[in-house]
Amino acid sequence: xxxxxxxxxxxxxxxxxxxxxxxxxxxxxxxxxxxxxxxxxxxxxxxxxxxxxxxxxxxxxxxxxxxxxxxxxxxxxxxxxxxxxxxxxxxxxxxxxxxxxxxxxxxxxxxxxxxxxxxxxxxxxxxxxxxxxxxxxxxxxxxxxxxxxxxxxxxxxxxxxxxxxxxxxxx
Length: 171
Hints:
Helix content is about 35%, strand content about 25%. It is α+β, with helices and mostly antiparallel strands. It has a single domain, classed as Gcn5-related N-acetyltransferase (GNAT) (Aminopeptidase), CATH 3.40.630.30. A six-stranded mixed beta sheet has the order 1-2-3-4-5-6, with helices on both faces.
């Protein structure tokens, strides 16, 4: 991938260290949005929140990760991001897979194909690294994500259900 891919108003490029505060802000906006989709969602622990900056800083330089940002060329603002990583498995037939972790586009810039472009770029990274199988997770109740991912060819495979131990019925 080139350092930047331009198209009209938006440019997608690899994240830099100076982008980390923007990435964290978007990740927090994603977290807040997901909470509106499903309030039973588990939340990031305070310990993880304290180390999130370091995690992103390290991931930018880790060859297993691809972190991209979308820049609005008119305002020079970062208005979107996506993160993907390569995972090695001992237990499964697919020894190496790609995982799309987070995707966020600012609400004022949605429905312009930016999510699709981000995923296309992450897929190029995965292909160059021998990845053939991808996975991602989205929150139950996030109908927008369900539509986007299914349009791109992702199919639900595993359902994860949460519950509080005191609310589990034993009859």
